[in-house]
Design a protein that fits this description.
The protein has about 170 residues and is mainly α. The protein has helices at about 1-5, 30-35, 55-70, 85-100, 125-130, 135-150, 150-170; strands at about 15, 20, 40-45, 55, 75-80, 105. The protein has a single domain (about 1-160), classed as Rossmann fold (3-Layer(aba) Sandwich), CATH 3.40.50.720. The protein has seven helices and six strands; from the N terminus they run αββαββαβαβααα. The protein is elongated, with a radius of gyration of 17 Å.
Length: about 170
């Protein structure tokens, strides 16, 4: 931003929370979905009650396209959904989509979500400057859950999930 202010370099910064979508190359959502389906407790260590934001992957694409058209240079824009989640909130929403009763949680185990920061991002500026509107989780979550129920899609991310789990277990933070 200092380069923009000093030299008028055209720059916009988009800040994103965890991105959730049908083609989840980080395995964050599918890790939760798989745990729920296999009755494995979801880790809540250090994030049990922290609220955070998520954003739907297609909304990120829309925000980037709007930035290209609108050129909001000199701004830092939070591209995040309107909802605030705790890990339990999100896991319970996924469980409801899967018809899984009584999901299990383990406060001694590290979680895959949130990975970037346990904070809620205020998206007001992105909505007002870009005219961008995030898709409600109630609309995108069923699509993501259904996509991840397809065997070939689960296969794609299974190695990624295993790697993420190993990294989470080895983290001290």
């Amino acid at each position: 931003m200092s380069a923009h202010e000093k030299y008028k370099i055209p720059i916009s910064i988009l800040r994103l929370p965890d991105v959730i979508g049908e083609f989840d190359n980080r395995g964050r959502h599918l890790g939760i979905q798989s745990s729920l389906l296999r009755d494995i407790p979801i880790g809540t260590k250090k994030v049990a009650n922290k609220k955070f934001s998520l954003v739907y992957a297609r909304d990120v694409v829309t925000a980037i396209n709007k930035c290209i058209r609108e050129k909001p240079f000199g701004h830092i824009l939070n591209i995040a959904g309107d909802e605030e989640f705790t890990l339990k909130d999100y896991a319970n929403m996924v469980a409801k989509e899967l018809n899984v009763k009584n999901p299990k949680f383990d406060k001694s185990k590290q979680s895959l979500l949130p990975s970037t920061m346990a904070a809620v991002l205020d998206n007001y500026k992105a909505k007002s400057i870009l005219g961008w509107l995030p898709t409600p989780a109630s609309e995108w979550l069923p699509k993501v859950v259904a996509w991840n129920m397809e065997h070939e899609n689960m296969q794609y991310t299974s190695n990624i999930i295993q790697q993420q789990i190993k990294e989470a277990e080895n983290r001290d933070d």
